[in-house]
Amino acid sequence: MQFNKQYFSGGSMGQRPKAGKFIAALTLGAIAVLALKPTPAHAWWNGDWSARKAITIDTSSAGANISDPIGTTPVLVRLDVSDFTFDAANPDGSDLRFVAGDDKTPLAYHIEKYDHLLGQAFVWVSVPDLKPAAQTNIYLYYGNQKATAGDDAKGTYDANMVAVYHFGEHNAPPKDLTSNGNTALTPGQADDFALIGPGERLDGQSTIQLPGSPSLAWTAGQAMTWSAWVNETALQPNAVLYSRTDGTNTVQIGVDSGIPFVAVTNAAGTQRTSAGAAIMAASWHQLMVVTGANITLYVDGVSYGTLAAPLPALNAIAYLGGDATTGAAAATAVPPATPGNATKPAAATPTPVAPSAAAATGFIGSIDELEISNVARPLGFIKFAAIGQGNNPLAGKLITYAAEEKPASWFSGPFAVILGSVTPDGWVIIGILAMMALVSWTVMADKISYVNRVGKANDKFLERYRNQSGDLTTLHQNQGDLAGLEASPLYGIYQIGAQEIRRRFAHIQGERLLSAQSIAAIRAALDGATVRQTQKLNRSMVLLTIAISGGPFLGLLGTVMGVMITFATIAEAGNVNINAIAPGISAALVATVAGLVVAIPALFGYNYLNSRISNGISDMHVFVDELESRMAEEYSPAPPNLEV
Q1: Which of 103, 227, 257, 619 has the greatest number of CB atoms lying within 10 Å of its CB?
Q2: What SS3 class is residue 199?
Q3: Tens digits of per-residue pLDDT, 101-125?
Q4: What is the rounded distance in angstroms from the CA atom of residue 165 to the CA atom of residue 372?
Q5: Least confident of 124-128, 394-398, 587-591
Q6: d(CA 410, CA 423)
C-alpha cells in the first residue's frame, strides 16, 4: 500500500522549526533586555559620571547675534538652582567636567566660585575656536563622588592671555590665573558681592600694584587688549582706574564724570580718546581697550572712543585704583621687577612719575575680572565677553542649558525615583512576580526547544515510515535507521503497535492474520499511547496559564495596597499636594506593570506553544488512524470470491 502523505501535509510540528527558533530568540532577548542595562541613546563621555547637561553657546541671529570672528575664548558658565541640581554634584564641585560637543574631548576649566548651599557657581571653560553666527554645544558632566578636582586655570586661557585676575583673595595680593605668574605686588580690599563672584573694592585712597614683568612689557605700538568690569560708586572727575608710567610715557584708563577714557602721555604731550555718552554710576560696565596703530575703547562691547596714537613703550609696575600719586601709593611705590622674576621687586629707585595733564583722583567703586592680552582681540571676542560675562539681556540667549540627562538605565532618572518610592509590601509582590516571570520564561524556552526536537524527530520517523511496505514490524526491527527518534511521539505510538502485532504472531507458524477483534484491541493500545504522549506534550503548560491569569491580579493587589498606604500616609501627615501623592501612586503602579510584564510574554508564548502542541496531537490521531488502516489491509483475511 502506498502511504498517503496528505494526512501529514499540514500542521505538523516539524513544519516550522525556523519560527520556533525565532520565538525562542525573542523570548531570550526580552529576558536579556530586562536583566541588562540598556545602551544610552547618545554617547556618554565617561560611565563614572551619572549625570550631564548640554550647554549651547548660540552666536547665531537667534542667540547673541555675533557675526564677527571670535576665536578661542574663556566662556563663563553660570550655574544656579534654576538650571543645575547642586545636590547631584559633589559639595565642592570637584566632579564637574566639561567636554566638547563630540562628547570625547575634555575642555580645560576652573571654578571661580562654587557654593552648593546658596546654589551658585561661576566656572570658566576654554572653548577652542568658537565660531560666530553658529551654535556650539558642550557638555557639563557631574555626579561622581569619587572624582577629584580637575581645575586647570592655566589651561583655561590661551598663550596670548598674559594676566587674569578674578580678585577672589582676602588680605592677599590678587593672583594671576595664567601661567605667567603676574600676581599683584600689594593686596586690596575684597568685595564679596561683585559681578562675577568676589571682586575688589577700590576706595580712591589706596592702590593695588601690578608687576612690570617681561610678559607684561609693552613695546611702542604693540597690539594689546585690556579689559575689566567696573562699578563706580558715584560719578567723580578724572577718576583713574588703571595707570602705568615709565619715564615720560603714561597710559591711564578711567572714568571722568561718567565718561570712560584712555589717556596716553608721551613726549608729544597727553591725548585722550574721544568722548561718548556718559555711563551710569552704581552699575556694572565693561571697559575694554584694544591697541594697535590706534587705540580703541569699548564700553559693554560697543566701540565708544578712539585715539589716533599707538601704545607707548611701558615696562614698569601698574596701579589699580589710581596712579603713583594716589594716597599711600606715592610713598610705597614698588620698583619694577627684575627680568625673569615677575613678582620679586628689584632693588632700584622708584619709577619716575610723569606729570598728569589734569588732577587725577583715585577710583571709588569696585572692579572685577581684569584680563590683559598681548594681542588685539577680534571684535567677536569683545562682544562675546561683554554679553557672556555681564548682565546683558542677550546673555540668556547666548548660553542656554538643556535638561539634566542620565545614562539610559532602568535604575536612573524618573524610574529610579519611582523604584525609590516602592513600599516594602510592594517589593514583596514584585518579588513574587519576578519569580513567576522567571519560571514562565524558563518554561517557554524549554517547551519551545522541546517541541522543535519533537517536530524534527517526527519528520525523521515519517520519512522512514513512508518508505516501509509489507510487514509493519520491520521498521522497528531495523534499529540502525531509527537512531535519534526517541523524541518522536509518532515513533512511540508506532512501537506500541508493533509490539502488539508481534505478540499476536509469536506462536503462529502459518499465514499471519489479525481478526477484527485483535485490530480493535491494538487500536485501544494506540489510543492509550496517544493520551500519554499528549500529556507529555502538555506538561508544564499550566504554569504559563497561572502566569497569564495570576500575574495581573497579583500586580493589581500590589497597586491597590500601595495606593491605600499612600493615601493613609498623606492623611496622617496632613500634606495634600501633587508632589506628595505622585511618587506613591507611581510606585504603586509599578506592581501592575510587573504583573503585565509577567502575563504578556506568557500569553504570547502560551498561544504559540498551544498551537504547536495542538498540531502535534492532531498528527498523532491521524497517524493512529493510518496505522490501523494499514494493519487492516496487511493482516486481514481476504474475502471469499463471490460468483454471480
Answers
A1: 619
A2: strand
A3: 999 999 999 999 999 999 999 999 9
A4: 9
A5: 587-591
A6: 18
pLDDT for res 123: 98
Instruction: Tell me the backbone φ, ψ of residue 240, rounded to 5 degrees.
Output: -90, 120
CA pair distance 164, 184, nearest whole angstrom: 11
Domains of the chain with bracketed CATH: 42-160+378-407 (no CATH), 161-374 (2.60.120.200), 420-635 (no CATH)
Strand partners, 96: none
Give SS3 for 65: coil
Measured CA to CA, the distance from residue 518 to residue 114 in angstroms comes to: 97
Sequence-distant (≥ 6) Cβ neighbours of residue 179 within 8 angstroms: 154
Cα 409 to Cα 414: distance, rounded to the nearest angstrom:
10
CA distance 6 to 643: 37
> 602 CB contacts (<8 Å, ≥6 apart)?
440, 444, 544, 547, 548, 551
Q: What is the C-alpha separation between 57 and 53, in angstroms, rounded?
A: 13
Query: Percentage of the chain with pLDDT > 70?
Result: 82
C-alpha cell at 347: 632693588
As a whole number of angstroms, the distance between CA 510 and CA 504 comes to 13
* Residues belonging to the chain: 644
Cell of 26: 525573542
Half-sphere exposure of 641 (CA within 13 A, CB side): 1
Neighbours of 10 (CB within 10 A): 10
Query: Residue 160 burial (CB < 10 Å; 0-12/13-18/19+)?
Result: middle
- pLDDT the model gives residue 352: 37
What pLDDT is attached to residue 494? 85
Closest CA to 163 of 373, 358, 20: 373
**What does the DSSP assignment read for 347-411?**
SSPPPP-PPPSS--EE-EEEEEEEEEESS---HHHHHHHHHHHS--TTHHHHEEEEEEE--S-TT
- CA dist., res. 138 & res. 105, Å (int): 10
d(C-alpha 171, C-alpha 200), whole Å: 11
Beta bridge partners of 52: 141, 405
Dihedral angle, C-alpha 557, 562, 567, 573, nearest 10 °? 150
Q: Is the pLDDT of residue 40 over 90?
A: no
Could you tell me which residues come within 8 angstroms of residue 642 by beta carbon, excluding any fewer than 6 positions away?
none
| Type of residue found at 524 | A
Retrieve residue 1's grid coordinates.
500500500
